[in-house]
Specification:
The protein is 78% helix and 0% strand. By secondary structure, the protein is mainly α. The protein starts with 15 loop residues before the first helix and ends with a helix.
């Protein structure tokens, strides 16, 4: 369904259960993984069951998001969506992404060893941005930012296993090199090149809507305009670090 009447609704009420289900479901999965790993403290994962569970949950969540994002972006009609268009699959992706980001934020917040103000801010803004897409509003770009771009997160989490569990580096040195290379290449592809293209396009679209006054909820558009701009700076900063990593 496209071209629906868009009032000042920020989040369609019908999508709130999906956000809650993803948030709660991720925590339930986290508890299951944590209890499983806790049974054997001699294993690499058993030594840090909370962190291990977090990594496994995020890998599952971003695998779903990236698969669905790539499907919608490259094989469905997501790229043709207009600012206020409704697309069932894109709405579900945005709701799932919001729930995952809120889980991500809370898990990091509750564990001092995971505290990182940059990542906490990143996850909070990403979660709110996904919620604001559920008006619906700018769903096209949410499919990329919250779907396609999560492909690099999947490989990042795999590569990060080796930082969290140094013994794995000794056991599987070639796998570590492969994981880092795949992450670096995927990051540059979807979060530097692809993300920059989408940022420029979405910023122009938001700016045009705000300047014409053709927008029911100006604060939401302004928030997204700022979030996309800051997000682009962050991706480019991380991209420089990735390139430096390749160079070293």
């Amino acid at each position: 369904m496209t071209g629906i009447d868009f009032d000042k609704t920020i989040i369609q009420p019908s999508m709130i259960p999906m956000i809650c289900k993803t948030f709660i479901g991720s925590f339930v999965l986290h508890i299951i993984f944590q209890l499983w790993f806790s049974h054997d403290v001699k294993t690499e994962f058993g030594k840090r069951p909370y962190v291990s569970a977090y990594y496994f949950v995020i890998i599952v969540d971003v695998a779903i998001l990236s698969f669905e994002g790539i499907r919608l972006w490259f094989f469905e009609d997501a790229q043709s969506l207009q600012p206020y268009d409704w697309n069932d699959s894109a709405m579900r992706l945005a709701a799932f992404h919001a729930g995952m980001e809120f889980y991500n934020f809370l898990v990091i917040l509750l564990r001092p060893e995971l505290h990182d103000i940059t990542m906490l801010t990143h996850h909070a803004v990403a979660g709110l941005s996904a919620c604001f897409a559920l008006g619906p509003f700018m769903l096209k770009w949410t499919v990329y930012y919250g779907g396609v771009a999560e492909l690099s997160t999947f490989f990042l989490m795999l590569a990060d296993f080796f930082k969290v569990y140094p013994d794995l580096c000794t056991k599987y040195p070639n796998l570590l090199i492969l994981a880092r290379m795949v992450f670096g290449l995927s990051f540059l592809a979807v979060r530097v090149v692809g993300w920059t293209y989408c940022s420029v396009q979405s910023e122009f679209q938001l700016f045009e809507l705000m300047m014409k006054g053709n927008i029911p909820n100006f604060p939401v558009a302004l928030f997204l305009f700022i979030a996309v701009g800051l997000g682009e700076i962050l991706q480019l900063f991380w991209g420089v670090l990735v390139i430096k990593g390749f160079a070293s």
